[in-house]
Design a protein that fits this description.
Layout: H1 3-8, H2 22-26, E1 35-39, H3 44-55, E2 59-64, H4 67-73, E3 82-86, H5 92-105, E4 111-114, E5 125-126, E6 130-131, H6 132-154, E7 159-163, H7 186-208, E8 214-219, H8 233-238, H9 256-268, E9 278-281, E10 284-285, E11 287-289, E12 299-301, H10 307-321
Parallel strand pairs: 1-2, 1-4, 2-3, 4-7, 7-8, 8-9, 11-12
Antiparallel strand pairs: 5-6, 9-10
Helix pairs in contact: 3-9, 5-6, 6-7, 6-10, 7-10
Length: about 325
């Protein structure tokens, strides 16, 4: 990890905290005339994010794997405030078609919110045999941002916000076997994908800052949403997240509004002006810890913000997706 990263990755005295809500973070924020893409913007934290941005006056574009579900969830926002674009993050053809449609409809993007994600899924292969969680959480977003980069550049001050997780602390990127050819572990696969999310933001920021584009990754906190769809009730009980009736009992768990707050803060806070390539948690910049350190409570693993690793992952992702150069 470079000294520059180590110095930048420290708290900046944010006025918000783990308890802050989306409404509190967005109070007084005026986004009239701004355009935002929110992946997964029709359920869970993505829906909270879409609603908060639209309430602040932004035009929100929501790429959706399930367009009908998106239309139902966002029925009250249809029209000028919200546009739904069909897209499957695990299908590069679908990603490129969605990007083309977005380029046709707007002349710039002020914010890109990569909220969509999957967690601890059963083993599944997509595309040319990619591991599903890496494809859905990283490759799809990488390809979409690469396609939309000119719109971000034209905004002259855009921010890209990538939802990661404290789950990045499970593992560094598995350079030797990123697609788990040697045997699948769903939690290791999730951890790798979340580490990839952070590394993506680190190198995107390095490439984009001269074009006025800054990027951030974050842990939104522990929140029960549709993200847990591949875990049984019994598994969630065993993890201490819910009781047998499904009531959330996990210590420190947040509401969806609280879970969306850090992403909204990352996109809009003036305190982050001139900053980027940072990992955030609880509406604050996290501290760096080693591989044996904590997985949450305001920490990020050093391997996830390592600039050499971020550049290496970028090259791997370009080769995998066929994305063109940016910058």
């Amino acid at each position: 990890m470079s000294i520059r990263t180590a110095v930048a990755q420290h708290p900046i005295n944010s006025p918000f905290s783990a308890a802050s809500t989306a409404e509190e973070v967005m109070a007084g924020v005026d986004l009239l005339g701004r355009t935002v893409v929110v992946t997964g913007g029709y359920s869970g934290l993505g829906l909270e994010t879409t609603l908060a941005l639209a309430a602040a006056g932004a035009r929100v574009i929501v790429p959706a794997r399930r367009p009908e579900a998106a239309r139902e969830a966002l029925a009250g926002l249809r029209g000028a405030a919200c546009e739904i674009v069909p897209m499957d993050l695990t299908d590069l053809g679908s990603v490129r078609a969605a990007a083309a449609r977005i380029r046709e409809s707007v002349d710039r993007l002020d914010f890109f919110m990569a909220v969509a994600g999957v967690m601890a899924t059963p083993e599944r292969r997509v595309g040319p045999g990619w591991e599903y969680q890496l494809a859905a959480n990283h490759f799809g977003h990488f390809a979409l941002v690469s396609e939309l980069y000119p719109l971000l550049r034209d905004a002259q001050g855009a921010r890209v916000v990538v939802y990661s997780s404290s789950g990045h602390g499970i593992t560094d990127f598995r350079w030797h076997d990123p697609h788990f050819r040697g045997g699948y572990d769903r939690w290791q696969a999730y951890g790798q994908a979340k580490t990839a999310n952070v590394l993506f933001a680190v190198h995107l920021d390095a490439l984009g800052r001269d074009d006025g584009i800054r990027a951030f990754a974050l842990h939104p906190g522990s929140i029960i949403t549709g993200l847990q769809r591949d875990l049984t009730r019994g598994e969630q009980v065993a993890l201490g997240w819910v009781d047998p009736q499904g009531t959330v009992i996990g210590e420190g768990f947040k509401s969806p509004s609280q879970g969306a707050a850090t992403g909204l803060w990352a996109a809009t806070s003036p305190l982050l002006a001139g900053r980027g390539g940072l990992y955030l948690e609880d509406c604050e910049v996290a501290r760096v810890t080693g591989e044996d350190g904590p997985m949450d409570d305001g920490w990020v693993r050093s391997y996830a913000v390592d600039r050499a690793s971020a550049a290496r992952l970028w090259e791997l992702s370009v080769a995998a997706t066929g994305a063109g150069p940016i910058g």
